[in-house]
Amino acid sequence: MDIIKAEYKENYEIYPVIPLRGVVAFPKMVVHFDVLREKSVNAVREALAKDRKVFIVTQRDVFAEDIKKEDLYSTGVLAEIRQVLRTPDDMLRVLVEGVYKAKLVELDDSEDTENPYCEAAIKEINNNKRCKASGAEIEAMTRSVRDAFENYSDLLPRMPRELAASILCQDDPEKLFENIVFNADFQYTDKQGLLEQNDTMSRLTSLLAVLVKETEVLEIESDIHSQVKESLNKNQRDVILREQMRVISSQLDESEDNEDYREKILELKLEEKTTEKLCREADRLKGIPASSQEAFVIKSYLDTVLSLPWNKESKCKVNIKKAESILDKDHFGLKKVKDRILESIAVHAINPDVTGQIICLVGPPGVGKTSIGKSIARALGREYVRVSLGGVRDESDIRGHRKTYVGAMPGRIINAMIQAGTKNPLILFDEIDKMSNDFRGDPSAAMLEVLDSEQNKEFRDHYTEVPFDLSKVMFITTANTTSTIPAPLLDRMEVIEITSYTREEKFHIAKEHLIPKQLKKHGLKAAQMKITDKGIYKLVDSYTREAGVRNLERNIGSLCRKTAKEIVYGNSEKINFNEKNISKYLGPEKYLPDARSEFDETGLVNGLAWTAAGGVLMPLEVAVLDGKGSTEVTGSLGDVMKESAKLAVSYSRSVADRYSIDREFYKNKDIHIHAPEGAVPKDGPSAGVTMVTAIISALSGIKVRSDVAMTGEITLHGRVLPIGGLREKTMAAYKEGIKKVIIPEKNRADLEEVDDVVKENIEFVFAKTLDDVLDNALVKE
Fold first, then answer.
1. pTM tops 0.85, yes or no
2. How far is the C-alpha of 60 from the C-alpha of 66, rounded, in Å?
């Protein structure tokens, strides 16, 4: 302590320190406490040997032993020792009186044989700092404190009525504060906060807050005590009745099921913690009447847990050629999906313990996302379970309910495992993009653990409360769009895009799958109803416009029903449908062929567009009129197409001399651009090349070839940029008899996805710039 004394002696007082546990002293307050720690005992002895003064400060942590400066509050009290007693168990009982409030400036806690106690440099704090509040404000606060203390004392049975009355008679705010703090049983942290206040108003304000808080706690304790007392009387009665029922049951020799359950649990050979948990539940059946509600809840829980496939697995097939034939037999197309599944089978053949296969199939309705799941399960030799997630908005649907609730049940995941009967099934989560959330929780958040191969090894359902291994399950999810799937959930899945079926794919699906399926469903033989190839194309082109084949299947089913009606009536023994007589049975055509230019003409270009139902041919018309140089676009065009029109006009101005166009056309000519079917909204950048070709044709008078269609985005300098949906667009061109299709050079690699029949019948021109487009589209003089 010599260093501290030399540095602080002139400005601060040096006194022995006694850290207190859970006790706070105030100036003028007489307080007693027991001292047992050696340093504190030595500090008392040192104070008694000198001036009986000792610095008392409260510990922040009552369990701390080796005290540092940071373990103590910065504000304490310099006290004078009044009395010291030694108890029979060799402990000092010290009685002190607070002298003044002081701040802890420095603490010497070093181990010193000459000074085997803690010393502190302290500075006196002015406890009567000038208060900014007015006398009226202090009076109002004094009354509030008095009222709060009256409520507090009414709820505190340990406080004598006479003491409370004497405190309430105090009018002086300082004496009122001291009497309440000295006699009230507050938390030591609250008392320390009161000690640290330096003016009358802040002390009263803090005291009022503590009184209000303590009053609320005492009111709650009183309510709890009343409820416990009422419940105790009822529980005593219930205990007596239950004991009587137990004795009666034992006399009647009712069978107990707990031993049967214990045998089943031990037979499963589960993990030690799981076995212990289930055995505890089984033991609870002892002494409980079999007809009681509690016994029913326990038995339902144990039956559910024991029905899980803890040790059962399906023997997966590893014959990749057989799996490929099954997939090809059940579904036409879907090459990406089939390749991914065959890759999984190949990996499983090399490493049977592989896990973490979670695939998300994304595509429009009706393209076979759900049905492919069942085929995959059959190809792999796994059990198949479908879980529909459309409209699920409660987390308990996924994780289950706590078994303490009435009517509790496990979630959909555990139910699916029970239904599968094996621990390695294929579970299909259908419509995962249709989940939502509300005040009952977010089911997509619960799915994060299920679809994470690193976490689902110990999946815990709220109902079962024991971990279950989902790592060997193959999860497949389906969705129409990824935009509504939360990003963390989407990140856990391998997304495979399934595009809409082309015209040729629909033809093969109808011929090889849908027609035989509907004939069997309606009890018809193949000889009783036939549809020609042209008749199938008629159904696809004129009676359906969709990405999948659901409406196509409905129309085939309608033809089957009409055939059955004719046969039953005896009008015919069989019916052959072709492109000419289908309208007789299905009515007028619902969809007309796409409009296209039939002969070479100026200002009319065959464009190609993509829709959710597939590709379409979209002619674009341009008319040049005398005017003031305005550009008009019609046909429900979106903002992107309007910007493409401005680009096209600007580019046309830059090449006006090359095509003998009046350089002043933008001043004296109005350009009107129109896309037919005005009620259908259209947008996207891929009509850029079409607009440029139509505008230059209309301005120059050069005709455009009617057997050419095109698609591509443009830049202001005439470069042609890549587009999407090439597979569907080229199929639309093939269907309408187009002979040449101009596409961006950067889409050359996408031709691998284009149907072979399209590539055989269409000549593709790969355009790097608009010069390539115009050279192939405009009729050469």
1. no
2. 13
